[in-house]
Amino acid sequence: MAYKFVDNYRERGARKKLVEELKLKGISDERVLKAIGNVKRHYFFDETFWNQAYLDKAFPIGEGQTISNPYTVAYQSELLHINKGDKVLEIGTGCGYQTCVLIELGAKVYTIERQEKLFERTSKILPYLGYEATFFCGDGSKGIAEHAPYDKIIVTAGAPFVPEILLRQLKVGGIIVIPVGDEASQKMTTVLRVSENEFDKIVLDTFRFVPLLGDQAW
Questions:
Q1: Residue from 154, 32, 163 nearest 94 by CA
Q2: Residue 2 pLDDT
Q3: What local confidence, expressed as pLDDT, does residue 174 receive?
Q4: Chain centroid to CA 175
Q5: In the 3-class helix/strand/coil scheme, how is the chain assigned residue by residue?
Q6: pLDDT number for residue 186
Q7: CA 177 to CA 152: how far, in whole Å?
Q8: Catalytic residue from among 28, 68, 77, 195
Q9: CA distance 88 to 150
Q10: Contacts of 74 (CB under 8 A, 6+ apart)
């Protein structure tokens, strides 16, 4: 695949237009909108498909995975309420687009991907683009216990339930954002860890993600 890291007026204009579109769709957090405007989404596309990069659509990235549409990335990012310096676990690195948005928001990101080819590509490309994260290859449904607890956890694949093992890796006061449902559609779900053994759950809008695979998922 032909990846080319060039950003000119056409791409910058397309990002500005995308940000305006996301505002119209209800994204209101100015920090999230700025992050979306800063991340060069076309860098995650073969040059042949650059005309698709700033459409609000998901797109295949290989290994049966997709780059989420920008609205979904912005929606999940907004729900996380990232504070600068937050320690964030991302489950499902994919191509790294969401990772970059989290870093733009000031998060310290630990990210895990089960597909080895995606892990190898993304863990090389992101640092080259100036985005530093801690990368892991493995079963994200179990989290990364050795680096817990986390301020925030984001899951970028559809799960049949909220894994208890992930809830236990949250700090008290921490938030997990995860799509939960069947393989056809999921409800975006946020869980706040109120205390050691208390959790508050809110179920929100319907989305469709690729399935979360692993020991604590499908």
A1: 154
A2: 54
A3: 98
A4: 14
A5: CCCCCCCCHHHHHHHHHHHHHHHHCCCCCHHHHHHHHHCCHHHHCCHHHHHHCCCCCCEEEECCEEECCHHHHHHHHHHHCCCCCCEEEEECCCCCHHHHHHHHCCCEEEEEECCHHHHHHHHHHHHHCCCCCEEEECCHHHCCHHHCCEEEEEECCEECCCCHHHHCCEEEEEEEEEEEECCCCEEEEEEEECCCCCEEEEEEEEECCCECCCCCCC
A6: 97
A7: 8
A8: 68
A9: 6
A10: 22, 27, 32, 33, 36, 101
Q: How far apart are the C-alpha atoms of 190 and 201, rounded to whole Å? A: 6
**Can you give the pLDDT at residue 124?**
95
> Are the beta carbons of 152 and 131 closer than 8 angstroms?
no
For β-strands 87-91 and 108-113, DSSP reports them as: parallel
User: Residue 85 has which token pair?
Assistant: 């310096």
Give the pair of three-digit tokens for residue 202. Answer: 């809110």
* Residue 176 phi, psi (nearest 5): -115, 135
pTM of the model: 0.95
- Average pLDDT for consecutive 10-residue bins of the chain (218 residues)? 78 96 98 98 87 91 85 98 98 96 98 96 95 97 97 97 97 98 95 97 95 88
Length of the chain: 218
> Catalytic annotation on 68?
yes
